[in-house]
Amino acid sequence: MRHQLFDIDTALLTKRCVIRRFRENDGKAFYKLLDGNRDYLLDHFPYLMAEAGKSRKGAEIFVRACIAEWLLQQRYAMGIWLNESTELVGFVQVFNIDWGVPSGELGYFIDRELIRQGIMTEVLARVVRFSFLQLELDKLIIKTLIDNYASQRLARRVGFSREGDLRSEYRMPSGVLVDLMRFGFVRETYGE
């Protein structure tokens, strides 16, 4: 357990959003977000849909597991809440943390109605800052489907560089193996 992480921020602010750690009873709002984006998420986040997307109860169990993993310093999962409406509109997490490096992977999505409005750019930039300056990670990784051009543009926009392709790295729910593109960002190249 890293004692210096006991007092990290649990809410991050951007111009349009609050990115905050999940709280008890956020499962209802999270299920609504998952259900409203079901078609996209089934292909891109099948593990999430299997865990949290089946029912409100499943979503609440997932949310509470995220809270526990935050406290255990295993994963930092947050909801993205719009300032104007206080509605949950997205999800972002720092996961697959290797404290030996230290490094972590970013995963994220936003409601399909808000794609291409720049919200994820400001959210991801803020989470990168949090990861480098508060979690004190030295490296961040993003993996995208080889044809997820929007996510690849987003990764580059916030400072990530392409590191290579991972062949047959991800199995789609249909059973087909597909390639992923890997992006990395190291703290030494991060400029506030």
Automatic annotation (TrEMBL):
<dbReference type="InterPro" id="IPR051531">
    <property type="entry name" value="N-acetyltransferase"/>
</dbReference>
<dbReference type="InterPro" id="IPR016181">
    <property type="entry name" value="Acyl_CoA_acyltransferase"/>
</dbReference>
<feature type="domain" description="N-acetyltransferase">
    <location>
        <begin position="17"/>
        <end position="182"/>
    </location>
</feature>
<comment type="similarity">
    <text>Belongs to the acetyltransferase family. RimJ subfamily.</text>
</comment>
<protein>
    <submittedName>
        <fullName>RimJ/RimL family protein N-acetyltransferase</fullName>
    </submittedName>
</protein>
<dbReference type="Pfam" id="PF13302">
    <property type="entry name" value="Acetyltransf_3"/>
</dbReference>
<keyword id="KW-0808">Transferase</keyword>
<dbReference type="GO" id="GO:0016747">
    <property type="term" value="F:acyltransferase activity, transferring groups other than amino-acyl groups"/>
</dbReference>
<keyword id="KW-0012">Acyltransferase</keyword>
<dbReference type="InterPro" id="IPR000182">
    <property type="entry name" value="GNAT_dom"/>
</dbReference>
